[in-house]
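Workshop exercise sheet. Pairs work together: one partner reads the sequence aloud, the other fills in the structure field after running the prediction. Swap roles for the next sheet.
Pair: D.N. / O.F.
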Amino acid sequence: MAIKERDWYDALKIGCNKEGIERASKIIKDGGIAIFPTDTVYGMGCDPYDKKAVERIYKIKSRDRTRPLPVLTYSIETAERIVQLDQFTRRIVEKFWPGPLTLVLKVTDDRIKESLCLEDKIAIRVPDHRCTLELLKRRNFLVGTSANTSGNTSHTDPSRCLGDLEDYDVFVDGGVIASKGESTIIETEGEEIRMIREGSLAKTEILQS
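Structure field:
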């Protein structure tokens, strides 16, 4: 690795501590892009209400604009500010949030619907990671896509992100993530569960809820 690249990386890197979280929160508030650890893989995020920041994430990841970005939030209560939870879905999230389960739910917030170019649904979850939850306490919602170029594998080792991505504003280093894989993504229809992506949670585990 060239010295110039390493110097650039070290200049952006901050710790997963109170000072680091406060700095990352301010950068995001000001329109910046952050990379941060979650309970599954390293994520990349911004203020989901900031259209320019959202567009930057699509560009950094070389992601198809037709693929909506998922959102992270702090709790079930904050999630309900922007999505609709029925009784069946609530039982599921009460068991698996915080955790590696993403749900596709009806979006009720017109502002976030517009900024993320959504139709009527959004993918959302509460991650089980102290560092990210502290950041979400301050920001409430973050775009929470994996920190990798589209088509490449997601990363659990912070050093791997350096060779894959550029042009972000801050890197919250939480060390190597001990992960069983990416989050499972589901959508509920009545009391039926439709698997969109099976990740670290199997459908059988969810059905037992």
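Discussion prompt: Residues 1-6 have pLDDT under 50 and may be disordered. What would you look at next?
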